[in-house]
# Entry
Amino acid sequence: MTKARRLVAGTVAAGALALSLAGCAQSVDPIERLGRKATEGVQGGQSTRQPKAPASASAAPSGGTGHVAADAHRRWGLAKPLEFAPRPAHRPALPRAGAGRVPVVDRIPVPAGERTVFLTYDDGAERDPEFLRMVADLHLPVSMFLTDSVASAGYGHFEQLRKAGPGSAINNHTLTHPNLRTLSYERQRAEICGQQERLQKRFGTKPRLFRPPFGNYNDDTLRAAKDCGAEALVLWRASMQIHDIRYAEGSGLRPGEIVLAHFRGPDELKGTTLTQMTTRMLRKIQEQGYRIGRLEDYL
Ligand SMILES: [Zn+2]
# Structure
């Protein structure tokens, strides 16, 4: 059994314990077949789309100033272009943290009526070049929470993702994806600080945000994360499954919602690719009238 497999199994089991949101156990409808013309390359488990010049050209770092091609949304199965939130003039006030602890953020306190949500992707087992093209084409800001034991073999891929999606960032999701609530303070600290150092060494920047595996944490986690230099512990209240977003409460997104997705591929998603899953998630965000923000602009 590979580490990636163990991680996925663990995620399913403990997801049910945590927020009932993280697991991928869900009955699967026949795989939604997206319009072929619109989603060439998003079909089935295999990519049919060759990297063409425009797509690979747009994979270059744009630094948030690049221009999204007028037809990019159609290439990825969306009816209209995505809307992005401008960088806010001020960072919203976060929940107050106890002394020596990081604040816990499960939703961004955006101004009332501001229909902005945030995309986060966890773990790092799946490295799909098609997803890299999608992020580059659509200029998607993705906040990645990477676990060293599953993502490290593909850190180069995640570095490309970070450069391709303006406003994207790489954050800490521990060294080995344990349930931190079962560990002593010292072992939690080793998991969190260890990954801070790994990521800083590999990517040259110290991650600012930390997400505990399965959303499980305790007071020791808040202290350890602070001690390791993280600025906030980031959770979620909406979670993308294979076909639908699952909500912690209600039946739709709310302003400031942090949406959790995973770097998962057809093996974990019953044949659905990461790009297909992302297209469905983006459609649901658009259908509900939301735009996408860059999490690191707000935290
Ligand atoms: Zn995880």
About this structure: The pocket of zinc ion is lined by residues 11, 122-123, 173, 177, 213 (CB under 6 Å). Residues 1-65 have pLDDT under 50 and may be disordered. Residues 1-21+109-242+256-299 form a domain with the TIM Barrel fold (CATH 3.20.20.370). The first helix runs from residue 3 to 17.
